[in-house]
Amino acid sequence: MNTREKIILASLDLFNERGERNITTNHIASHLGISPGNLYYHFRNKTDIIYEIFLQYQLLVDHYLQAPEGRPLTVEDQFDYLESVFDGLWSYRFFHRDLEHYLESDERLKADYRKFTQRCIGSVVNIIRGMELSGILRPVSDHLRRSLALNVWLVVTNWMSFLKTAAGEESALIRKDTLKHGIYQVICLEAPYLQPAFYDQVTGLQQNYSPSVLNDLGL
Amino acid sequence: MNTREKIILASLDLFNERGERNITTNHIASHLGISPGNLYYHFRNKTDIIYEIFLQYQLLVDHYLQAPEGRPLTVEDQFDYLESVFDGLWSYRFFHRDLEHYLESDERLKADYRKFTQRCIGSVVNIIRGMELSGILRPVSDHLRRSLALNVWLVVTNWMSFLKTAAGEESALIRKDTLKHGIYQVICLEAPYLQPAFYDQVTGLQQNYSPSVLNDLGL
DNA sequence: ATATTTTTAGAGTATATACTCTAGGTGTCA
DNA sequence: TGACACCTAGAGTATATACTCTAAAAATAT
Prior knowledge:
The structure is a homodimer.
Chain A: H1 3-18, H2 25-32, H3 36-42, H4 46-64, H5 75-91, H6 99-104, H7 107-133, H8 142-166, H9 176-179, H10 182-190, H11 196-206, H12 212-216
Chain B binds a DNA duplex through helix 3.
């Protein structure tokens, strides 16, 4: 692996583990055992490192949200989508934490991220429509489908932050599988629109993500 | 108004307008025309200022979410709740932006905020139950009511961040009334559970918050 | 082998930032 | 009037942080 890639990986790691705000370029360099000068040879500044990480994140999520080729959507497809997206959120979890700040200090990122959000919500809309077509969900209006997709996006992208801020001592360490309890909340959003024939199957699978966490929290 | 109160107000103002990360204690002092020494006479550090602001925020929201005295909940009550809460979110909008960071650097705040979240979600649960009792919503299981309340909380507290990150040039300036389009999304969450007798009234009022923004965004 | 380009080290710097310290002013109450 | 607590000014400091600059090593091409 070349130095540039190493910098990206180490930065992502450190940002995820200790928070971007607490990690300086000097930290990154010394963590890799390279000089600051070397780091700045490969990246003009810290903002550029973050932008590069975003590009990878974007690639990953876009890939995850692709529609299956010429076949109707299944219930399993939906859970696969959710599993993948939460995996992605986990791997790049520092990103949504101070997103607003990054967008403020990088116009490129701001424009790109906006388009990314649109694509993602568009994909969710398509997935919902796909499930209507395969008879999993009852048909809904374009308007409602859009609102539903948007709410899904809000729950998905902010679930991590909720866990981190609302979780107490005992579950202070959030792991990838804790994060996936968010899937339970997403299924709650779509449950009212499930066709009777699929209701039991979906809510059955939903139980795999039952948020015992919330009980711990007394919620 | 005494100096201590002035510092709190000025800090809140500057944090909201320019982002807490961009505002130093020296900025706050010079904005008020007082010396840094003076500021540090009243507050041990910046963290303490943020904590004090949180206490005010908490007081406000707790007040907003009180149950009405010995009468059933009305549809208007619900919209009042939502209007108030979004007002509160607007006035203290800097707070949810880097919340995780504040909780990391202040154990008091972390504990208090956790309890605050629990109280808030508890209030939402009560409001939902209230609406079931007054026949606005169909009765739901405790489990579902909780999940619903949690999703409401997620949408409400993260709507601002969504607008800021997904909104483009044209609507880059988010105002209080733009923020309230979030109410539309919240009503979408409860719509499936509305009793037929109230469906038209609620969805009618919902239209007042119709997110033309989203059309601008091409969503 | 030589020339040239790419990569790296590491000391160094300008600036910012949270916070301190001392001295002095101001109001209050006996 | 004097004692005393409260409040304020403002220069100053230790530290951090993003980033620069020069020179040299390593890789690559001719």
